[in-house]
Design goal:
9% helix, mainly beta, globular, five-stranded mixed beta barrel
Length: 111
């Protein structure tokens, strides 16, 4: 299965080493089953981590915020949600800056 180049399933974070490391898995959208609301994001490979910029631009939808439209949230709000909901596997598009840290995360809304 091909891997989406800019979408990840976010699992957890770690503050080890004095910086934030976002733990995620790459994957791709699969075909929906007849009884589903949409296609599932199927992860492949091992868990990966990249540093998360402490001032990253993050947008989120349901279930992180009560909206189906992306809302901007702070990094700490995102980390608090991840800590309370580890391994949720919510799908985000991401961008890595010149310093090698994720500087943008935008949640992909799935019903």
């Amino acid at each position: 299965m091909p891997i989406s180049p800019d979408e990840i399933a976010v699992l957890r974070y770690t503050p080890e080493g004095g910086s934030l490391g976002l733990i995620f898995r790459h994957g791709n959208w699969d075909c929906p089953t007849p009884d589903s609301d949409g296609p599932p994001f199927v992860t492949v490979g091992k868990e990966t981590f990249l540093p998360l910029d402490q001032v990253a631009y993050i947008t989120a939808t349901d279930p992180i915020v009560a909206s189906t439209e992306n809302q901007r949230i702070g990094v700490q709000e995102f980390l608090d949600w991840l800590e309370a909901h580890p391994d949720s596997g919510l799908v985000f598009t991401y961008h890595v800056g010149a310093d090698g840290a994720i500087d943008r995360l935008e949640q992909v809304f799935t019903p």
